Amino acid sequence: MVIRYLSGLIMVLLIGVFAMVPGATIAQPGATPEVERVLIGQGVELVWYELIPDESFPLLIGEIHNPSDAPVAAPYLNIAFSDDAGNVYGTTTTTPILPVIEAGESMGFMAHISDVDEGWTTAQFIACSYSYDFDPNATANLTVTDVEVRERERGSGFYTVSGWVENGNLQAVPYVAVIIPAYDPQNGRFIGWGWDVISTEVPGERRAAFDASFAPTLDLPGWIEDMEPEFRPTALVSVVSGGGSC
């Protein structure tokens, strides 16, 4: 995976002008996180959302779902924040954390909205096409094994996830990324993600270590103190950085 691909994966883009086209509209904080599932484009539904208030970095977190019986390319989300009169207070986008949403599965998203002015009452979600330039054949032969999870300090909420990526391909693969979504083990909700990049080639039929540290969002409704998140690492081989359009 090249570095500009990784930066595209984690970067939140701010857009000055946003066209209010049909999508799913949600209420600001205080509304129930579960929303009526509405198709928001690219064959996906908005499942739930939550706004985590913070003076410096308020966070919008949630999941989208593929209701079909076939995989779909994961979209990026275009989100506009407006008031009841239709005035737009700001916009943001989120880049998909993985290239594909399997049939009947969901994928999490996160967006920091510190540059969105206060006063908005609704957020409108539009799913837009995104091209993940990765190698699906080489990726299919990667296996994540021997995963260990350590909390940096008890009660800190900061975790290190480490393990090995087994390369089942005969040839070496470059730029392997390990994407690590985290979930609430009680209800299966997405609570954040981390990543690591193995920046050297992984030889054919050999393995390489990964190690990622991050803090999932543990202040969502229903979280039980001292409960350990569930981590689901996935390895993939990237070719070049992706791109998207609405």
What's the number of domains?
2
Mean pLDDT: 83
Q: Structural class of the secondary elements?
A: mainly beta
Strand/helix succession: HEEEEEEEEEEHEEEEEEEE
The first-level CATH class name of the largest domain: Mainly Beta
| CATH topology heading of the largest domain | Immunoglobulin-like
CATH H-tier superfamily of the largest domain: Lipoprotein YajI-like
For the CA atoms, what is the radius of gyration? 18 Å
Query: How large a portion of the residues is in β-strands, by DSSP E?
Result: over 45%
Number of strands: 18
SSE layout and pairings?
Layout: H1 3-10, E1 24-27, E2 34-39, E3 45-52, E4 59-65, E5 72-73, E6 76-82, E7 88-94, E8 100-101, E9 106-112, E10 122-131, H2 136-140, E11 142-151, E12 159-167, E13 176-183, E14 190-198, E15 207-214, E16 230-231, E17 234-237, E18 243-245
In short:
This protein folds into 2 domains: 3-131, Sandwich (Immunoglobulin-like), CATH 2.60.40.1620; 136-241, Immunoglobulin-like (Sandwich), CATH 2.60.40.10. The chain has 2 helices and 18 strands.
Descriptive notes:
The chain is 5% helix and 46% strand. The longest helix has 8 residues, at 3-10. The chain has 246 residues and is mainly beta. The chain contains two helices and 18 strands. The chain is globular, with a radius of gyration of 18 Å. 35% of the residues are buried. Strands 1, 6, 7, 10 and 18 form a five-stranded antiparallel beta sheet that branches. The chain has two domains: 3-131, Lipoprotein YajI-like (Immunoglobulin-like); 136-241, Sandwich (Immunoglobulin-like), CATH 2.60.40.10.
